[in-house]
Amino acid sequence: MLESIRKPSKRGLPFPPEIMLLITLRYYATGSFQKMQKDVMNICQQSVSRIIVQVSNLIAKKMKKYVKFPTTAEGLNMVKQKFYEISHFPEVIGCIDCTHIKIRSPGGNTSEVYKNRKGFFSINVQTVVGPNLEFFNLVARWPGSTPDNFIYNNSSIKQRLDTGELEGVILGDSDFAMSNTILTPFLSPNSIAQEQYNKSHNETRKIVEHCLGIWKGRFPCLQVGMCIKVETVVAVICACAALHNIAVSVGDIAPTNWEMAEIDNDVDITICNEDPNSDGFVARQLFVDRYFQNC
Fold it and tell me: Could you report how far apart the first and last alpha carbons of the chain are, in Å?
């Protein structure tokens, strides 16, 4: 008699939203289904996988609500002031960099385009960071072999800067082609003003590397890599960006040692040519003459 009595099965019933969120956050904190097994013993891996996809997609759809530039002139001016306070570099509204998020080989005929110059498969993610270590813009759709400058040239942020919708400049490394809206360092400075420009540029732009290190420290799945479908990886990246900005907005300050997370994942920089006759070179020199000549 007792042997014939069984507990009612809960198979097929939906999981509580709180549990689904916690499972997803646990994956973000590990990047591994195996490491999650002891925490979700009563849930099969297939269900965990479906939960991660569903929750990540829901959060990713909210990214533009949290990852955005200030929408008013007053807000942008405040950003410029905060950047200026770092190392006296004027007119800055953001610092740009790309970072590689490891993935497994997608397979198929196009899988090699995801292999970057370090030899591992990745998504090359473009980020623009603000002075409070928040993301102002994030693009997560390009395979690992895509050059940083190509991503920027095909991004909405470039269009918004070029059309004057966003007034100011962003700071990038030598992987980006210089212009009147994206300023890069001089490879061979030949004046005190250019040296001062480089010093101020370097100190100000460190914030994007710091932000990426904190981001990957906060969500280790971005650092260790993910063995899930590419489209889900993209959703996870966008979700983690939104969650990072939410954390920053409520004053969740990360430990300083998290900034080291970004170093191991760096990919060698391809230096764009410096043509003294190019419009970008001329625009940069005019910027130096205007703001750094009397430093």
Answer: 91
